[in-house]
Specification:
The complex is a heterotrimer of chains A (360), B (452) and C (150).
Chain A lengths: L1 H14 L2 H9 L1 E2 L8 H22 L9 H10 L4 H28 L8 H23 L4 H14 L6 H9 L6 H33 L8 H6 L3 E2 H26 L25 H9 L3 E2 L2 E2 H17 L1 H4 L10 H22 L5
Chain B lengths: L22 H18 L24 H7 L4 H9 L4 H4 L5 H4 L8 H4 L15 H9 L2 H7 L7 H7 L1 H7 L8 H5 L19 H9 L2 H5 L7 H5 L3 H7 L9 H5 L12 H6 L3 H9 L2 H7 L4 H6 L29 H32 L5 H20 L5 H59 L1
Helix pairs in contact in B: 1-7, 2-3, 9-10, 21-22, 21-23, 22-23
Chain C lengths: L6 H33 L11 E6 L7 E7 L2 E7 L5 E5 L10 E3 L4 E4 L4 E3 L5 E3 L8 E7 L2 E5 L3
Antiparallel strand pairs in C: 1-10, 2-3, 3-4, 4-9, 5-6, 6-7, 7-8, 9-10
Classes of the chains: A mainly alpha (360), B mainly alpha (452), C alpha+beta (150).
């Protein structure tokens, strides 16, 4: 204990850390009936940390070439001690991270927390979710198995529909005309270098903004928050978050051990696509909706219209702090609240229906 | 490689009779005379020797006036041959229309070109065809110049065939050369478009042999084609594209097509299925079958509809093959029973071991060793199935023991893998308990802290 | 809630602290143990690629063959009577039995149905429908390496 104290004193003397601790202990987290929502950002962060740790471990054995990728993952899950666990945790944690991020995003949206002055937090969060999905998409290909190979073929093919830049984008993503070993190498680069770098920067910004601006209290809960004693960030809120993290760890361990992530068969670029090719679940809402659009609508390619609609939808979602003018004045817009519930209903219903096989 | 004789014949422009000291020319002339003698009798005098304008030097496409003219004709019957010769291997090798039909291929005048006095034969009668084709194809030294790698005994074989014998008796319904190879547009048998390419032979023979009414005249059932299509051989040919899989001609012969006799069936099958034949020859069945004039392989496996053999065939019960000679209670039935039991035991254990290994594999376990053992067991099953032909239960049993041992090892490895999975689950439960405990402790801590 | 503050309160507090420390320590250990195990590579230190050490040249006399393992599938390396080393898949193309080298025939033979393959892997006679897959052979000193798909 004395050693720790000495260390702390030495550091504090040089870096002036005391004000930071001071800040953290004085920082308060308001309490109201929806304050559960404050824990999901932290949970997402926890899964992200797990991803970084397990990702680095996998890097010790993984080989990003078409010849060796599948074999190296097979080697990890069958021969390396606890390799099955590390790989399974990495796959499950990726999915849980995206799930937690979605919950976080919708709770923020529905509580109107994106409102001025927190536009930057919303935007950085939006981009972080985009990066997370990029992690998912690029990471899905890395084991180089049948499913991932064909899902990537379909997924990258969509970019070719983008007007003007389509062919360029397709070649950029695939590293050629087709999904080949070149695609694998580049996706590996995105997955372990480009995306982590961007994520680290954005994540720093996102967290910094939250610490700077404090938690948002929705207008209709302000009264309740005033009457209830707020939680001190340190240690009360942090310890509670710790319980949530432990719960997340338990779920992760249970999933990884009981439902080990399957490896499937090695990708064969010349084989015909196996039946039931589906992307990761968080792309299903897009995948299934695009399938529902007729091949051509008013002489325009249906898929192009669908992608256009998603682009416009994404832009509206992104710009919601600006578009929802009432929010800046602390008022809730019924229209944007309805939009939020509508989008949530669409995402959940399409994803669930897709799992139930309703779109076959 | 046989050194080729310099070809003295067929000098371009030499349209006159060849010098009689050229042996090849003499043979060709004799051959031609022979055909015409068979075919037309009196018209022999009209047939001239084959001139350079009729059969050109090898490797050079034939140039004649016949195709130029016939291509322009309106009547499809007369136009079609001229259009078809574009792909014709003979035409490509310098054989003009006159090579088979006679006449003068250099003349633009129909009266001159198709002058019977110049040997013009018109449409060949079926009876004329074999000898016509044989006039070149039976001439070894002639064929050496054009296609040195093909045999020259087709005509000789054909004469021994059922088709050839019937033709000799004047039956013109039987197959002649052109029935299978085509007349105009003949392709080498190695060409996938040829009607005698392995995968197309069934349909080619089937054109006649699939016609039950026609076949009834010859006392043939006519269901051979349909039966053959049920066979493993047909499946190998068409589904696995295994061109070495037997089709009609591999057992019946091509030119000498005839049904294999009772004593030769096992020879025919044994050319590919050597080991089974060897076991059969060692078995008491060999002499027993011969004594009752029972064909060997065919007795159990059928002839055309050679089905994928099943272990369930063994026994004297309903639908089992041994029952056609043996009856319950005799020594054969007892042997069959013990062979069947050994096979069943093997399969049961192997299927169980496979399922268990597969399950462990799906759970993410490395089952390479077990897979090797399963391969070994599979190989043992194949060998045991070969031993069935020896009809000696002891030999099957020896193989079965090896299969059971290999399957047992695989099963043991799968059991070990299952143990490892259980161990992982236990480990998980322990860590879940630890995590739960930490959660409880943390909650207690928070409650204490906040109460204070 | 505590009816008697003081001693029992203190002991409960220290119990909670002990429980918290122990259980968090155990959780950390449970998370770190697999990590420490993971970073140490297994005996076979490399992910299998398409290459394997099939035999030692010194253990392979003239006119002999040896079956080796390519993952779970067998391969066969053959030293011909003239000293050349060749390698093939040992899986017979007929019914997947493991083939062997027959010094008396001086070629590859499958015992199951008497299939014969020549020293180029080509099916000579018997039921095999296709040639054996040919592997590339590299000899480094005494080591015979066999590469698949090259």
């Amino acid at each position: 204990m004395r050693l720790l104290d000495t260390l702390w004193k030495a550091l504090d003397e040089r870096l002036e850390l005391a004000p930071l601790v001071e800040f953290a202990t004085h920082k308060e987290v308001p309490q109201h009936r929806h304050s559960w929502a404050y824990y999901f950002g932290g949970l997402t962060l926890f899964f992200f940390a797990v991803q970084v740790a397990t990702g680095i471990l996998l890097l010790l054995y993984y080989r990003p070439t078409a010849e060796a990728a599948f074999e190296s993952v097979q080697f990890i899950v069958t021969r390396v001690p606890f390799g099955w666990l590390v790989r399974s945790v990495h796959s499950w944690s990726a999915n849980l991270m995206i799930l937690a991020a979605f919950v976080h995003m919708f709770s923020v949206y529905l509580l109107g927390s994106y409102a001025k002055p927190r536009e930057l937090t919303w935007w950085s969060g939006f981009l972080l979710l985009g990066l997370a999905m990029g992690f998912g998409f690029s990471g899905y290909l890395l084991p180089w198995n049948e499913l991932s190979f064909f899902a990537t073929r379909i997924g990258t093919d969509m970019t070719s529909k983008v007007p003007l830049a389509g062919p360029w984008l397709l070649t950029f993503l695939r590293g050629g005309e087709e999904v080949t070993g070149a695609t694998l190498t580049r996706f590996f680069g995105f997955h372990v270098a480009v995306l982590p770098m961007l994520s680290a920067g954005l994540l720093g910004l996102h967290l910094g903004l939250i610490q700077r601006q404090g938690m948002h209290v929705p207008g209709h809960l302000a009264e309740e928050a005033r009457t209830r004693k707020p939680l001190r960030f340190l240690p009360n809120f942090v310890l509670r978050e710790g319980v949530v993290w432990l719960f997340g760890l338990a779920v992760l361990a249970a999933l990884a051990a009981f439902f080990p992530w399957e490896l499937g068969n090695k990708a064969d670029p010349f084989a015909s696509a196996p039946a039931g090719i589906k992307p990761e679940w968080y792309f299903l809402f897009m995948f299934e909706a695009l399938k529902l659009i007729p091949a051509t609508v008013l002489g325009i390619e249906g898929e192009l219209i669908g992608l256009g609609a998603f682009a416009v939808g994404g832009l509206v979602w992104f710009l919601v702090p600006v578009l929802d003018r009432a929010s800046a004045h602390g008022r809730r817009s019924r229209l944007f609240l309805a939009l939020g519930w509508g989008v949530l209903a669409y995402l959940v219903s399409f994803t669930v229906l897709s799992f139930l096989g309703a779109f076959q | 490689m046989t050194p080729r004789r310099p070809g003295p014949a067929c000098h371009p422009g030499n349209r006159g009779p060849r010098s009689t000291n050229d042996p090849r020319a003499a043979v060709v002339r004799l051959g031609t005379l022979a055909i015409v003698a068979v075919a037309l009798g009196a018209a022999v005098a009209a047939a001239g020797p084959l001139a350079a304008s009729v059969v050109g030097p090898p490797g050079k496409s034939a140039a004649d006036r016949c195709t130029a003219c016939h291509r322009e004709l309106d009547e499809a019957r007369l136009q079609a041959p001229a259009l078809a010769v574009g792909n014709d291997t003979h035409h490509a090798q310098g054989v003009t229309c006159a090579g088979c039909h006679g006449g003068d291929p250099t003349s633009d005048e129909p009266e001159v070109a198709m002058d019977p006095k110049k040997g013009f034969l018109g449409k060949l009668e079926p009876t004329q065809v074999p000898a016509m084709c044989g006039s070149c194809h039976s001439d070894a030294s002639f064929m050496l110049r054009y296609a040195p790698n093909i045999p020259t005994d087709q005509l000789a074989q054909y004469r021994t065939s059922k088709h050839g014998q019937a033709l000799a008796k004047g039956d013109v319904k039987v197959a002649v050369c052109s029935s299978c190879h085509g007349a105009h547009g003949v392709l080498p048998p190695s060409d996938a478009r040829s009607p005698v390419y392995p995968s197309r032979i069934v349909e080619t023979c089937g054109a006649c042999h699939g016609d039950a009414t026609l076949m009834a005249r010859y006392g043939i059932k006519g269901d051979e084609l349909a039966e053959y299509k049920k066979s493993v051989h047909y499946a190998a040919l068409t589904q696995k594209n295994d061109l070495s899989a037997p089709t009609c001609n591999d057992c019946h012969g091509s030119h000498g097509a005839t049904p294999p006799g009772i004593s030769s069936v096992s020879n025919v099958c044994g050319t590919c299925h050597l080991t089974q034949r060897e076991r059969f020859d060692e078995s008491p069945h060999k002499e027993a079958f011969a004594a009752i004039e029972q064909p060997a392989c065919e007795a159990c496996h059928s002839n055309h509809a050679v089905l994928s053999p099943s272990d369930a065939w063994i026994g004297v019960g309903q639908g089992q093959v041994c029952g056609s000679c043996h009856a319950a209670g005799d020594a054969g039935a007892a042997a069959a029973e013990s062979v069947a039991a050994a096979l069943a035991r093997m399969h049961e254990r192997l299927v169980a071991a496979e399922a268990r290994v597969k399950k462990a594999e799906r759970a993410g376990m490395l089952m390479e060793e077990a897979q090797v053992k399963l391969e070994e067991a599979h190989q043992g099953v194949v060998l045991a199935q070969v031993e069935i032909h020896s009809v000696d239960p002891a030999r099957v049993e020896t193989q079965a023991k090896e299969v059971l041992a290999a399957a047992g090892v695989a099963d043991g490895l799968a059991a070990a893998a299952e143990g490892e999975i259980r161990f992982r689950r236990t480990g998980l439960f322990v860590s879940l308990a630890v995590i739960a405990l930490a959660m409880v402790a943390l909650i207690l801590k928070i409650r204490r802290m906040e109460r204070a | 809630m505590d009816p008697v503050p003081g001693k029992s309160g203190i002991s409960r507090k220290s119990f909670v602290n002990w429980l918290l420390g122990t259980s968090l320590g155990a959780t950390l250990a449970a998370a770190l143990y697999p990590v420490f195990r993971f970073v140490i590579p297994p005996e076979v230190a490399e992910a299998p690629v398409n290459r394997v050490l099939a035999a030692k040249l010194s253990e392979l006399p003239l006119n002999a063959g040896k079956v080796f393992r390519f993952g779970s599938k067998p391969g066969i390396v053959v030293r011909t009577a003239t000293g050349e080393v060749r390698a093939f898949s040992a899986v017979c193309t007929h019914l997947n039995c493991t083939v062997q080298y027959r010094p008396d025939f001086q070629h590859v033979w499958c015992a199951c149905h008497n299939g014969h393959y020549d020293l180029q892997g080509k099916n000579l006679s018997g039921p095999p429908p296709r040639p054996l897959e040919v592997y590339k052979v590299d000899i480094a000193g005494d080591d015979v390496y066999v590469t698949k798909g090259a």
